[in-house]
Amino acid sequence: MKDVAQHAGVSTATVSRVLNGHAAPTPETRERVLAAIEKLGYRPNALARSLRTTSTQTLGLVISDLLNPFFAEIARAVEDEARSHGYCVVIGNADESAEQEATYVRTLLDRRVDGLLLCPATDDPSLVREVSAGGVPLVLLDRTVRGATCPVVRADGSEALTALARRLVGAGHTRIGVIAGPPNTSTGRERTDVLTGSLGGLAQVVHGDFRQESGSQAAAKLIDDGATALVAMDNLMGLGALGEVRARGLQIPHDIALAVFDDQPWFPLLDPPITVIAQPTVEMGRAAARSLLALINGRQPDDVRLTAKLVLRGSLGEAEL
Amino acid sequence: MKDVAQHAGVSTATVSRVLNGHAAPTPETRERVLAAIEKLGYRPNALARSLRTTSTQTLGLVISDLLNPFFAEIARAVEDEARSHGYCVVIGNADESAEQEATYVRTLLDRRVDGLLLCPATDDPSLVREVSAGGVPLVLLDRTVRGATCPVVRADGSEALTALARRLVGAGHTRIGVIAGPPNTSTGRERTDVLTGSLGGLAQVVHGDFRQESGSQAAAKLIDDGATALVAMDNLMGLGALGEVRARGLQIPHDIALAVFDDQPWFPLLDPPITVIAQPTVEMGRAAARSLLALINGRQPDDVRLTAKLVLRGSLGEAEL
DNA sequence: CATACATGTGTAATCGATTAACTACGGTCT
DNA sequence: AGACCGTAGTTAATCGATTACACATGTATG
């Protein structure tokens, strides 16, 4: 910057003013400064600028797993929305581990992100409190924690789940295997509660960890126990369950019915296509980013609750008639 | 930091030494400082530290599309490797757009990442030159550019592609539709050249843009032209092609054979499972991160060339016998 | 013609860390 | 006792920007 100033025959203050679009500098001065910048290939140091202004124009996003397309889509939407407001997003991968999640959150805070979007790995509120105590704007996404005091953006699957339950029961299924998420996550618990509630005593629950492998294992156990229908509570466990069903040579929906929470681009391509409960991922991501930006700008956004929808495709068999 | 120093009755220099594990401070002083840090909940400002040390312990990774599982896996691997060396990764999504790619690269440079990993959207070397001119360590990943002067990490699919070609020809296919990547990307061009080369005059090429929609369109065109086998040059176009095949009610492999470049967890679950050329994504990501770290540490790593493998699963029909 | 005021630019403090150079202190050795 | 040395800790410069305040110049006003 000093070099630029020297080249243009002005002070660094003036260079800074030109850079920041202040009204002060003469068009002629501005011209000279811009020429010098161009000539020297100068690029301002964002670190220094942020240090001085205490604003990084950056949002932190901590998610459980980038390989999970559900989170990848959310990340993508967050990024789009943030970018359109001049913000950058730094993504942290927590790998469904509370410890790694905490590490990432702290790293992001150390780098002074202007705000944080968090999909908490567990419903333990201590990390959330730590962030809030630091005074950093925080919005929870997809999942919440016990006694959360910050805005939350999530999808409500209750309606879709009860509709699904009604169809399964109506089709005469009496042993319905539920491949549930971890009970210490809000989404894991809530979805399972709603579904088992609507299924009366027909549900048999096995808990997984939102990963493919656990989906296979849970499916195996449930099939062994005589389940005639499976409901996987997220797409990775759905993938695992599907693998197990195929490995056993069972036909969907003839031998067993299957429904999955979360949609995937390839679900319609299976034979039969898989019936799902689709979450509005893009909307969730955008809404979360907007809420966070609002918070950063001193407004107090409301919680956002979007609706997940049941998409019938055929993998339930007669239940879909 | 000043507060901590005051609390512990020392100067900020001493606090800094404790923080950075210098030998100087007495165990007793160290103890006092740590206590003060704990008590005040002090966390060092990474921006200030980086400004002073000119090192951010951060790598930039610019990829074409986070929603493409191929890149998501790479990102994940890069991150793992980087983290194990105490580095953070900031991911930028270029969306297969050269312009957005350039924007992201510049943003990352402005933030003074210690090194940059780039999957170039096109083979135009100007952006690469710009980065190199800035003296920032740079490694290219998956794709290269014309006259690249920096280390490159990529997968070689030639062997797998010729093997695939041999099988298709051997099975008597005479009209083989190739859904190619953009000709201005190195991977797009090379893969297509190798395959069409080995297919003699039997190949019919339609170019897509590495996205699902273009895969459907290309497949439609090729099927209309009487192709009896399709080869999609990346997984998203493969997904599109598969959709088109299904939409027309064609049976794989009876009516048409299909092979896809890039593997996906759900390909084995289709009926029949899809034959693919699998790239070692995790190895690619790790290798790229390692090369970049080497470069940052003043070493001069060699190019890395890993091997993609043909995985036969059944979607080629008799060609797989 | 002096005074007030607007305007464009420069000076220097500041953000929060690191670190070279210096000081103070105590202990050894002749 | 005096010279010398090692060690623990302080002072202050520095990284590269922003910005309050001061200053100089030019124009309008009484």
TrEMBL record, chains A, B:
<dbReference type="InterPro" id="IPR000843">
    <property type="entry name" value="HTH_LacI"/>
</dbReference>
<dbReference type="InterPro" id="IPR028082">
    <property type="entry name" value="Peripla_BP_I"/>
</dbReference>
<dbReference type="InterPro" id="IPR001761">
    <property type="entry name" value="Peripla_BP/Lac1_sug-bd_dom"/>
</dbReference>
<dbReference type="InterPro" id="IPR010982">
    <property type="entry name" value="Lambda_DNA-bd_dom_sf"/>
</dbReference>
<feature type="domain" description="HTH lacI-type">
    <location>
        <begin position="1"/>
        <end position="53"/>
    </location>
</feature>
<dbReference type="GO" id="GO:0000976">
    <property type="term" value="F:transcription cis-regulatory region binding"/>
</dbReference>
<dbReference type="GO" id="GO:0003700">
    <property type="term" value="F:DNA-binding transcription factor activity"/>
</dbReference>
<dbReference type="Pfam" id="PF00532">
    <property type="entry name" value="Peripla_BP_1"/>
</dbReference>
<keyword id="KW-0805">Transcription regulation</keyword>
<keyword id="KW-0678">Repressor</keyword>
<dbReference type="Pfam" id="PF00356">
    <property type="entry name" value="LacI"/>
</dbReference>
<keyword id="KW-0238">DNA-binding</keyword>
<keyword id="KW-0804">Transcription</keyword>
<protein>
    <submittedName>
        <fullName>Transcriptional regulator, LacI family</fullName>
    </submittedName>
</protein>
